[in-house]
Write a structure and sequence with these properties.
Blueprint: H1 5-13, H2 15-61, H3 64-71, H4 79-97, E1 104-106, H5 113-124, H6 126-138, H7 144-147, H8 161-165, E2 170-175, E3 193-199, E4 216-220, H9 226-231, E5 236-240, E6 247-250, H10 258-261, E7 262-266, H11 281-301, H12 317-328
Parallel strand pairs: 1-2, 2-3, 3-5, 4-5
Antiparallel strand pairs: 4-6, 6-7
Length: 334
């Protein structure tokens, strides 16, 4: 069991996504196993029939297996394809045998969040590659030089839309200084869900960079958004952040309008002049301004009587001018 209780809570909330992936994996594994067993039994039956036809004398003086390869009908599966199916079955069994650790990535300090997430999903993607290998072998299209590498790693970029729909969730434990989430946008497709368990301080609103209309995105300091992420049928990411970070939830299930989707419960003041990991003070201010802009746009587009979470009014003239311009703009289609 994970040592960080937040990781355990995330795995529990994503139980549905894990079961979806496991069910697809189990069905594929069983299909390949049955196919191999069926063709193994057919081969045994052919040898038995040929042995009976040769009689006792023939069986005692002739290698029936070798003789069968010369005179028996062509097997329904070529030896190379059979070997590919066996390797695919072994990969499927290996991925299926993994426990909760299959869904947890503990990012070492200083490592690339994007690079390690790419590798982690490519490793789990071996199951997707194995399914592709099995399909090619059964269709007579299997070529070891081309397809065997899919059994070693199969990157998320190569997954089909149907394969992405049953993608396994990933819980990532990451230092705040290494939280560079923009690259994660590549993985937010289909049904893939990511939870970032952040260790230590980070920039105030890094996940605002990932907000798009059909992606669940939340920054919270508790576990309140995990159940909503688990219930959402599309892609999403939740950051379990330090208390000093901004707090917001962007939930596409709440409605089509931005005012319905976005709830901002806290935007901190940037009262320091120091970098946060890779982010300069200017970049940190940009994150907060982007979050405030989305919040203002939601307020402008909200129907009369709709409450939108507010932050304290800024005394900065630039902020006031930006707010006035947002109110003058037609943002109803945002």
């Amino acid at each position: 069991m994970p040592s960080d209780p937040r990781t355990a809570a995330a795995l529990a909330a994503l139980q549905g996504s894990r079961e979806t992936f496991r069910s697809a994996l189990a069905a594929t594994l069983e299909d390949v196993r049955v196919y191999l067993d069926t063709h193994r039994n057919e081969a045994k039956e052919r040898l038995a029939v040929l042995g009976a036809e040769l009689g006792l004398v023939g069986v005692n003086h002739i290698d029936v297996g070798r003789f069968a390869s010369l005179v028996a009908p062509e097997p329904t599966i070529a030896p190379a394809a059979h070997a590919g199916l066996r390797r695919a079955l072994e990969v499927l069994q290996d991925v299926a045998a993994r426990g909760d650790e299959a869904y947890v990535l503990d990012l070492p300090s200083g490592e690339s969040l994007y690079g390690k997430t790419t590798d982690h999903l490519a490793g789990l993607g071996r199951a997707v590659g194995a399914a592709r290998v099995a399909e090619a072998a059964r269709a007579g299209r299997y070529r070891p030089a081309e397809h065997d590498r899919w059994l070693e790693r199969f990157p998320f970029a190569s997954w089909s839309q149907a394969e992405r729909a049953v993608a396994p969730p990933v819980v990532i434990e990451v230092d705040g200084a290494d939280l560079r989430p923009a690259g994660l946008a590549e993985f937010l497709d289909g049904g893939l869900k990511i939870v970032l368990v952040v260790r230590g301080e980070t920039s105030p609103a890094p996940l605002v960079r990932l907000v798009t209309p059909r992606t669940f995105v939340a920054q919270v300091s508790d576990e309140s958004a995990l159940a909503r992420l688990g219930a959402w049928t599309g892609p999403g990411v939740v950051g379990l952040m330090p208390a000093s970070a901004a707090r917001f939830v962007h939930d596409p299930a709440a409605g089509d309008a931005l005012a319905a989707r976005l709830a901002v419960s806290g935007v901190p003041d940037l009262d320091h002049k120091k970098r946060a990991g890779p982010f300069s003070v200017a970049q940190q201010r940009e994150e907060l301004e982007q979050l405030r802009a989305l919040q203002s746009a939601a307020a402008v587009a909200a129907p009369v009587g709709t409450a939108v979470a507010a932050t304290p009014e800024s005394a900065d003239p630039v902020d006031k001018l930006a707010a006035w311009l947002l109110h003058q703009a037609d943002l109803s289609g945002v």
